[in-house]
C-alpha cells in the first residue's frame, strides 16, 4: 500500500509526529507508523514504574503539543496529582500522559486521517516508481510512502570493554541494560555495586537500588567523575543572552558564560537564558569548534544543562556526603573475575596510575549511545544507497534547517525527514521533549503545506 506519510520508529519522537499528523491532515490522508516496540511512544525513559524516576524538566514545559502548553499540567490535575507547572512529575506518569494523548486523538473517528500501526521492523528502503520510498518490513510485507519521517532513537550504550573474557558465572552479574529492572531483585543487601558512568542514568539506578532495599556501598567510575547538578528549588529568572554577540570559539564562549555566571546570584539563570537559543549558537560554530566542544566541554555542559529535580538531587547528594556513593575518575581498562567477584581495572584520570574496583555487581550506566548510522540496519542500508549521509561528527545524519534529510542519490519527489536525536548534527539540543515537540510540529506543517491542493 502507498501511504501519504510513513513514520519510522516507536519512541517519543514518533508519537509526537503521529499526534501532529492526526491533528493536521485531512480525512483523506493515510499514515503508517512502523515500529517493533510494544511500548509504543513510551520508550525506555517513560516505561519505568519507580516513582523516584522523575522528569528533569518541569511539568509546565512537557506538554506534548507546543500550542497547548498547559496540557500535561491539566492531565496531572485531572488525575489527582498535586503538582504545579514548576514541579517535576514522574516519568511513569509522563508515559501514561503520552499514551492517553494519542488514544484521545485516535478516538476521534470523524474527520481524521487513517492511521495504521504496523508492528514490524523496517529492514530496507528503496525508491519506487520515481515517486515513493518503499520499506521492506521484517514480517515480509512492503509499504511505500510519499513522505517519510525517520524517528529512530538510540539505545543503551555498550560497555566500553567486551565482557566476553569473564566467566559465565560472574558475567551474569554484569548488567548491560539497567532499564530492565528485574536485576534489582537479585542484588543482596550485603553486595557491593560498581556503576560505570556518572550521568542521569546513574542517579536513577542508585535511587532504584535504595528503593529496593539495597544499603551497601556503590562505587561510580567515569572518565571525569562528574555528576549532574540539581535544579534550584525556586528557579531564577533566565538571563537574556544575545548569542550573536558571543565569541565564535568554544574557549571564548566558556569565558563569556563564566563571566556572566559570576555576575548573577544563580548560575542556572545563565544556562536557562542560553537554553532556547542553543541551536542558534550551535549553527554559528565551525566544524572545528563543534569537535572541540565534544572533546573537551561536553561533560561540563551535561552536568550544568541536564539537571535533576531538587528533591532527587538532595537524596542523592546525601548518599554522596555519607560515603555510600563514591566517585572514581578514570578510564576503564579491563574486566576480570577474581574469587567470584568482578574486578574493574582503570587508569586514574590525569595520571598513569592503575587502580581497581572490586564489586559483586557491575552496572552499565554509560548512558545512551550517540545517534548514528551504525546502530541501525535500516540506516546502514539507506546509507549504502546514498539516501542518507552521516553527520561528519557522528551526530546522526545530515539534515537541513527544516529537518529534511540530505541524500545525494535521491531523484524522486518523495520528501524524507528526520526528527529527534538523528538531527543532532544540525540542531545539537534535540533530545529533550521541549525541543522534539517543536521540531515534530514544524515537520508536519511542512508536509501538510506541500500537499497538492486537491488532496489537502
Automatic annotation (TrEMBL):
Gene3D superfamilies (UniProt xref): FAD/NAD(P)-binding domain
Matches recorded under Pfam families: NAD_binding_9
Domain FAD-dependent urate hydroxylase HpyO/Asp monooxygenase CreE-like FAD/NAD(P)-binding: 7-154
InterPro entries: FAD/NAD-bd_sf, HpyO/CreE_NAD-binding, L-asp_N-monooxygenase_NS-form
Protein name, UniProt field: Putative NAD(P)/FAD-binding protein YdhS
Biological source species: Rhizobium aethiopicum
